[in-house]
Amino acid sequence: LLMPAFAEVLCILGAGVQAYSHYDIFTELFTFKEVRIWNRTKEKAVKFANSVNGPVQVCSSAQEAVSGADVIITVTMATTPILFGDWVKPGAHINAVGASRPDWRELDDELMKNSVLFVDSREAALTESGDVILSGAEIFAELGEVVKGTKPALPEKTTVFKSLGMAVEDTVAAKFVYDSWSAGN
Hints:
This protein is α/β, with parallel strands linked by helices. The protein is built from 8 helices and 8 strands. Strands 3-2-1-4-5-8-6-7 form an 8-stranded parallel beta sheet.
């Protein structure tokens, strides 16, 4: 929806539980020529790469992992930025999942202010997301507005989706998976 149409390189920053679920869904739904991972602890990144289905390149720095990536997923417990705007290629999409406290950050000001920002909930983002609050970035749309067609997705632009998690999203995702599974049986 928000990512570039011809995304070839997937990058995941962080190697915890959320990294596995995001890897699984993104590689199930989309075909990437290359998948890269970085984690503060290299051992966790290596463990991740060795335990998923498919080749994953372990990178020694976040910048190396991000360089040239079309889709970047941040799933960390970072309290200060680990992803910087000058590393991100124009037109990339960032799914920012970690740093879900008002004083935590994964993304720097440059990236937040020079990207089209989508959130699951404006209210939640403006009270819970340090990436949004501390950068002062302007929210372009809620994801629901894009799904309903009242706001465009703009996949040709550099986009950030700051996810804080909402029960309704989990329900819709579960229904999507169930319907997809049912159609195949």
